[in-house]
Design brief:
With 466 residues, the protein is an alpha/beta fold. Helices cover 32% and strands 25% of the residues.
Length: 466
């Protein structure tokens, strides 16, 4: 029986990063993955493939809508080759997952393919092509999450689908109905809207991206309506039925009236659930919460001191970069170090176009906490760089403490906000004031100038270009 200092169950961003850090710290490490490729949901059927399709569809959208304005004439009809688009997406996935395999070899991490299940707190059986058992002083559970579903919806994975199937469709839907106005539904909805599908969004709550600042929800909703998405907020779905190649969705609107939607595909995107199937955590004594998450303390230890859990399988935002930070945190904790994570400073991003990004507190959270704050906001359309690129939707908003001027939250929607948000994270990590940011030189012309201008707006309302 092979013995390890650490065994990691699950090879997504949290798991493989934890394994690498453990190996760097001199621990003999194994990683267990049920599928034939490493990388988990994120690399195989999540973050990476969805961004590949978003980028491809963005190029097509630009070509048919903006190239002529830019003085680029393309003779003949511009067509979508969906088969090639999906193939390119898969090539990106294969290259990325192959990179993880390389990193495992580079760091001398043993990889086991199969389902890892606890025999007890220090022994794990792995059911793959052959059944093996290993012993581990410490175990990190990083098994991630799976798409959630509504109890009355039967997913046939052909016409009534999850995000996994939406990444490999063989045709562009004529009418895609998306149940759920969160990140995944909006991103994939935008992919197929750009490619020519009619897209209807049905959201139970009164706004899309409901966990983010309300001003971001409002602006993105406006952008989507302008792009001719059919937005249906405050709608409670009550049935989804397939008849041949047609899917019929019935819902109650905010007045309580029944409405019906008909399309050829329905994407069910109502969140994700922690995935612990097959782990046999009971045998190790690991406790779950009533929401099916693994219960952990501030050190990310489970109810069993030598077993840890990270990522989507525990409480908190289901974000790949959160899982990575937790993986490093646990590895360093096991090694006797004293790492820390500031969950308030883990940014959230929606990769639609315009992109949406945020870090820190929302206005709603500050109001609920009774914190006096001031707001500085600057529109993207006032930037020379935004006008040059024709990306004028959106804004940057900075929330700062009214007394101390410390930045408490930054919320932005616009071009390249997924990258711009890092400036805000750095500033807040060093507890910068709005004036600190306003006095930093930002290159001109760039999108980052919107951050400086928003900081100026929060500092005695002295934005220069608005």
């Amino acid at each position: 029986m092979s013995k390890y200092d650490v065994a990691v169950i699950g090879s997504g961003p949290g798991g493989y990063v934890a394994a690498i850090r453990c190996a760097q710290l001199g621990m003999k490490t194994a990683i267990i993955e049920k599928y034939s490729t490493l990388g988990g949901t994120c690399l195989n059927v999540g973050c990476i493939p969805s961004k590949a399709l978003l980028d491809s569809s963005h190029h097509y959208d630009d070509a048919i809508k903006h190239f002529e304005t830019h003085g680029i004439d393309i003779p003949g009809e511009i067509k979508v080759n969906l088969k090639q688009m999906i193939a390119r997406k898969q090539a990106v996935v294969d290259q990325t997952t192959g990179g993880i395999t390389f990193l495992m070899k580079k760091n001398n991490i043993d990889v086991y393919e199969g389902i890892g299940a606890f025999k007890d707190a220090t022994h794990i059986t792995i059911s793959g092509k052959k059944k093996v058992e290993i012993e581990a002083k410490n175990t990190i559970i990083a098994t991630g999450s799976k798409p959630s579903n509504l109890p009355f919806i039967e997913l046939d994975k052909e016409r009534i689908i999850t995000s996994t199937e939406a990444l490999k469709l063989k045709e562009i839907p004529k009418h895609l109905i998306v149940i759920g106005g969160g990140v995944i539904g909006l991103e994939l909805g935008q992919v197929y809207k750009r490619l020519g599908a009619e897209v209807t969004i049905i959201e139970y709550l009164d706004r899309i991206i409901p966990t983010m600042d309300a001003s971001l929800s409002k602006e993105l909703n406006k952008v989507f309506k302008k792009a001719k998405f059919k937005m249906n907020l405050s709608h409670k779905v009550k049935s989804v039925v397939r008849k041949g190649n047609e899917v019929i969705v019935k819902a109650d609107n905010k007045k309580g009236e029944e409405v019906e939607f008909k399309g050829d595909y329905c994407l069910v995107s109502v969140g994700r659930r922690p995935y612990t199937d097959g782990l046999n955590v009971e045998a190790a004594g690991v406790k779950l919460t009533d929401r099916g998450q693994i219960e952990v303390n501030t050190h990310l230890q489970t109810s069993v001191s030598n077993i840890y859990a990270i990522g989507d399988v525990i409480k908190g935002a289901m974000l790949a970069h959160k899982a990575e930070e937790e993986g490093i945190f646990v590895a360093e904790t096991i090694a006797g170090q004293k790492p820390h994570i500031d969950y308030n400073l883990i940014p959230g991003v929606v990769y639609t176009w315009p992109e949406v990004a945020a870090v820190g507190k929302t206005e709603e959270e500050l109001k609920a906490a009774g914190i006096d704050y001031k707001v500085g906001q600057f529109p993207m359309r006032a930037l020379g760089r935004a006008r040059a690129s024709m990306d004028i939707d959106g804004f940057v908003k900075i929330l700062a403490d009214k007394t101390t001027d410390e930045v408490l939250g930054v919320h932005m929607i616009g071009s390249r906000c997924a990258d711009l948000i890092a400036e805000a994270v750095v500033a807040m990590e060093f507890r910068a004031s709005a004036e600190d940011i306003s006095r930093m030189s930002h290159a001109h012309p760039t999108y980052t100038e919107a951050i400086k201008e928003a900081a100026l707006a929060a500092t005695e309302d002295r934005a220069l270009h608005a």
